[in-house]
Design the sequence.
């Protein structure tokens, strides 16, 4: 058995987030084209006398350290499945924006699951891990898989999507977070009385990803939650405008926000747009990243 296992896991951006009407169970059917991006959290699992969560990095103070944390819930779920006592210290080294619409919490859940599986030598299959991921949350399975995928159902039913090249992104991090349930509730409020079409993945977007064509992708990006996020946080409009003025190919709110995402042509453009966003005063920080990125993977082990 290892004495420590460290797993690295990427953030995500929703290249397309098509949202259907609210279901009887309170969820929404989605056509969610996930694209993993090179901003990472790392979760390190070490043996302990009980379950303990610690966190370091930007906005670490905003991360819950109790059993509501998805990393803790992942450890508990795996331990229960295999009849193991969940005696583990999980340390989260945060670099994915907190409550930013980039699946940071989901990423930590997936990373903790992989780390605990290795630490405890449970030998869980990939299918079992994905099953637990789906129980934890809609975005957790994709955090495990990485790359690009179409998420259907509430986002947990994944079909791999081919990506034919590298895409360059800039992410503007806002002050504070946005509650995902609050954004969906605002989506429902804005859609009240209107017919909400069934969500369908855009063929043009899938073709652009397959071709590695940033210009084509820029015309196909879409987020049905963007009006709701802007309704709750109108200041995001100024951030989107600043990125567009700086030369971004396309702008959108990332997932439920409040992080905003900017597709750009190349690395040089990414740094130019990031600097312009910082200079605009419309965001707290701006981060450059490329996509796609690999899913949750073990990057370090320390033997007993």
Sequence:
């Amino acid at each position: 058995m290892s004495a420590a296992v460290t797993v690295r896991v990427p953030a995500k951006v929703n290249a397309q987030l098509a949202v259907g009407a609210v279901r009887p169970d309170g969820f929404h059917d989605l056509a969610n084209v996930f694209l993993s991006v090179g901003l990472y959290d790392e979760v390190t699992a070490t043996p302990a006398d009980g379950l303990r969560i610690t966190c370091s990095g930007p906005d670490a103070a905003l991360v819950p350290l109790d059993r509501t944390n998805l990393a803790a819930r992942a450890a508990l779920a795996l331990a229960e499945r295999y009849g193991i006592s969940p005696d583990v210290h999980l340390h989260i080294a945060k670099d994915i924006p907190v409550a930013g619409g980039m699946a940071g919490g989901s990423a930590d859940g997936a990373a903790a699951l992989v780390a605990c599986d290795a630490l405890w030598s449970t030998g869980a299959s990939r299918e079992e891990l994905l099953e637990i991921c789906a129980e934890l949350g809609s975005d957790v399975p994709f955090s495990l898989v990485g790359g690009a995928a179409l998420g259907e159902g509430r986002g947990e039913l994944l079909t791999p999507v081919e990506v034919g090249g590298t895409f360059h992104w800039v992410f503007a991090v806002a002050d504070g977070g946005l509650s995902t349930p609050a954004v969906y509730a605002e989506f429902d409020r804005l859609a009240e009385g209107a017919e909400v079409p069934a969500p369908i993945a855009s063929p043009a977007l899938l073709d652009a990803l397959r071709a590695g064509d940033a210009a084509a992708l820029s015309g196909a990006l879409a987020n049905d939650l963007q009006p709701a996020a802007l309704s709750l946080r109108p200041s995001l409009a100024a951030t989107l405008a600043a990125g567009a003025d700086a030369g971004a190919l396309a702008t959108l709110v990332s997932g439920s926000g409040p992080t905003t995402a900017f597709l750009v042509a190349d690395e040089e453009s990414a740094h130019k747009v990031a600097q312009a966003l910082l200079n605009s005063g419309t965001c707290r920080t701006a981060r450059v990243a490329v996509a796609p990125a690999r899913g949750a993977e073990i990057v370090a082990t320390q033997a007993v």
Summary: The chain has ten helices and twelve strands. The chain has a mean pLDDT of 95. The radius of gyration is 19 Å. The first strand starts at residue 2 and ends at 22.
